Amino acid sequence: MILKQKGDSWESIGSFLGIHPQTVKKVYERWEKTGCFSSAPRAGRPKSLDERDVRHLARHITSSRDTRRQALGEIKNALNLTVSSKTLHKVITKDIGLGHRIERKKPWLRPEQKVARLKFAKEHINWTEEEWKRVVWSDEMAMQTDANQGFKWVWRYPEEEYNEDCCRGTVISGFQKVRIWGAIRYGKLSKLIVVPEREGDGKMNSHDYVDYIMDGEMFDFWMESSEELGQVVMMEDGAGYHQKAASVRRMQLEQDGWIGWGPGSWPSSSPDLNPIENLWHILRSNIRKRKVQPRNKEQLIVALQEEWEKLDMELINKLCLSMPRRLQAVIDAKGGITKY
Fold it and tell me: Global pTM?
């Protein structure tokens, strides 16, 4: 501006600044008219949905369990929108910030279960690390051989569809299931117990639980832990076979110093409060990562025992000491489901 006011030509000013004379002239004229150098905002193409439409869209999607599961076409029909599915998807993900994800699988909690979970969390939220180190977490898990275990992706060329390296072997007789029991505490892992399958329906009952688990490895693990730490707390969930004969046996053990959470004192439908559930997930994952998949019950048992022994003790300790965070999450959710 100073150079022009001194009388310099557009050419000399452009040469001095290293820009085209016409550009210098346009910038100067813009400054004379508007008092600024920046270009006026361009109108551009108007948005398909205005701010009010976007707010209405967000309220609709998040209003219920069903609307959260609507397809783009259903949303357009419900709100009488004329935009394309591509535009609608962009508005939902970019402007509103909602992601389209696979729903998580979590236990469906009844109101009374939420109350029990919240009560348990509040009663134990102030436990110290040393107290959590004295808790023995136990549980059962069932796993089957490779058949019906879901999808596994493989990189291949189109013509390699039936290449042996690109196919998964199946067992003609179908899958075979193995039920196991295990327990953990800070610094220690129990033996992994394979529960024999009952004749007939194959389901475990309370007498089986007492014979194969309570009076077996669970008792031994309790005794070893008590000798090392003093009094420990045994955790069992409220499964049906943990009751009846198991409740009678538990009352007998209580006379010898057994204390713990079980049916009646452990909040039902609370796998997120049992750290061993995370180990079951890791164990399943490690089995499926094996180069040679178990094809029968005997091979699956061997694989489970091997992977159980490989579990990282540092990870187990971290899981045992995660209880304050788990309980706080339950309190924050007012007894509802958590991320654990």
Answer: 0.73
Most confidently predicted of 98-107, 164-173, 286-295: 286-295
Smallest CA-to-CA distance from 50 within 19, 83, 5, 21 is with: 83
**Phi, psi torsion values for 181, nearest 5 degrees:** -130, 145
pLDDT of the residue at 148: 46
At residue 248, φ and ψ (nearest 5 deg) are -65, -45
What is the residue whose two structure tokens read 């001194």? Answer: 6
- Long-range contacts made by residues 211-217, C-beta under 8 angstroms, separation at least 24? 212/181, 213/181, 214/246, 214/249, 214/250, 214/253, 215/249, 217/181, 217/183, 217/190, 217/191, 217/193
Q: CATH number for the 111-332 domain, one of 3.30.1340.30, 3.40.30.10, 3.40.190.150, 3.30.420.10?
A: 3.30.420.10
Q: What is the pLDDT of residue 159?
A: 73
The token duo for 13 is 């000013």
The number of CA neighbours under 13 Å toward the Cβ of 115 is: 3
Report d(CA 120, CA 261) in Å as an integer.
11
Share of the chain above pLDDT 70, in %: 87
Which residue's entry shows tokens 């707010």?
Answer: 55
Taking CA 74 as the corner, what is the angle to CA 70 and CA 80, rounded to the nearest 5 degrees?
A: 135
Alpha carbon of 40 to those of 1, 24, 31, 44, 138: distances in Å? Answer: 19, 16, 11, 12, 69
Return d(Cα 322, Cα 184) in angstroms, integer. 14
Confidence of residue 224 (pLDDT cuts 50, 70, 90): very high
Contact 204, 241 (CB under 8 A): yes
Q: Which amino acid is at 267?
A: P
- Within 196-257, strands assigned E span 233-235
Please name the helix (run of DSSP H) or strand (run of DSSP E) that holds residue 66, with its range, or none.
none
What CA–CA distance (Å, rounded) separates 328 from 306?
Answer: 35
Does residue 196 contact residue 212 with C-beta atoms inside 8 Å? yes
User: Does residue 1 contact residue 17 with C-beta atoms inside 8 Å?
Assistant: no
Count other Cβ atoms within 10 Å, centred on residue 10: 17
